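Progress report, Aim 2. The chain analyzed during this reporting quarter is listed below.
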Amino acid sequence: MDKFLLILFVFLISCEEKTFADDIVLNFPKDEKLTFQKFNDDLTDRGTSLIYIGEIHPQFAVNYYKYIIPPVKIYERDFLNSKTRKKFEDSIELAQQSFFRTEKIKILETNKVFADHLNSKNLSILVKEKDTIPLYKQYYKTNEIKKYKAFPVIIKNTSTKILKIPTDAKSVDLWILNNNQFRYVSNSNYIFRGSELQKISYFELKPDEILIYSCPYFKKGEKRKAKIKFGTAESKEFEISVDENIIRKMLHTGFIE
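Predicted structure tokens for the chain:
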């Protein structure tokens, strides 16, 4: 009887659903000292949470796109000063290659609104909430690199069509269960409001291609059920520890109810 139960147990384990991200390895220095991102820290930080766009490979280095759309650089009229400034900025970028990607994202534009087309019918979201990876950010005043504790979120285009990803998709959204409803929660309480533009910018995600993001851990507290949203697509539920002070701050500002 015991032998039968053991065989049944092994069979059930082998029948567990294999995901597209099971064999993906994210590489980074294992001796790095990582900290929890403090509330509203990202207000003074440069950098996105986007690690990769493209075909699936066995291994990826954990380095980030600093910008989805690079800012316009304005140099002084004095040629010598502008040349010196550019040389200084280039040296910083060279020193930060292990943290940020140097390649640019191909940006396209359209007049059509397409935000609702990202859903669970064409996207699959896999969350590895138990795998700690670094989230790199650059402090805008000193160019210092900050290293936060985060976990990977891998999103795959499961459709046969090319999907348009809005350029404001710099991160994924974390939703937690609060008062029996899932509510959006963030480690900050500010909002950037943009003006209405005639054209919408985006980049493409081809069939079977993936996006790799990181989502910062919150300071530890009570365990809550959570899920990741991207557009209207949702991940499976998982558990995450969230400091209740963050919940209270967002309750106070009206971000969640």
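Residues 23 and 225 are 26 Å apart (CA to CA). The chain has a mean pLDDT of 81. These observations will guide the mutagenesis work planned for the next reporting period.
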